[in-house]
Amino acid sequence: MIDENNANEASVRFLLAEFANVESERLRLKSEAIQRLNFFLTVTSAVLGGLLLFTQFKSTINVKFEYVAIIALGFLSIIGWQTFRFVVQRDINTDLILRAGGRIRRFFVDNDPAIKPYLMWEDHDEPTGYVLKNDSAIRRTNQTTLALLLSLMVGIIVSLFLDGLLIFSVVGLFSFVGMLMGLEAFAGRRFRKIAFKAQDEILHPKKVATDR
Questions:
Q1: Cα(9)–Cα(3) distance, integer angstroms
Q2: Across residues 32-44, what is the average pLDDT?
Q3: How far apart are CA 111 and CA 105, in angstroms?
Q4: Contacts of 99 (CB under 8 A, 6+ apart)
Q5: Is the pTM of this model over 0.85?
């Protein structure tokens, strides 16, 4: 048999180890998201630079520029889409991690309420801003770049059938706005779904401060 003091000490050690694990995972996700975004932007810059260079020699190369551009933009869009999905999932997982950390803090607050004033982070497991009001700069940068690539590709495809810079510009602009709104809607649906799920899983809601 394990007496109460030993059981409590074992629980404390376990929760401290668990907290270290979730914090490590949070930092890993943050680092990987930045690395993936940097890779996407670097490849995009290199490929677009290559397309620009191609225009200087297209007269000597028996390949239509539009076809090369569509293939290149399609390739970049695939990378951008995979990065975008990862970043959205990263924010969802970060919400889960922060809620897990909140539960652990609540354990210590409930056992020693005197530490409450010293906590800067939440001690509850309600949904966080990552899913309630997501404004991630990494996601928005990725989202905007992907929408731009997709709109350029649509504009070039349309220009194969309809000549004119004005047509290309108008189609590209409307495509950009549409793609941006579509990606925002995709992310918003994912975040709302997780937020509703998190509401049902709350074990330790926020404690409402009362005036005395």
A1: 10
A2: 97
A3: 10
A4: 125, 126, 127, 128, 198
A5: yes
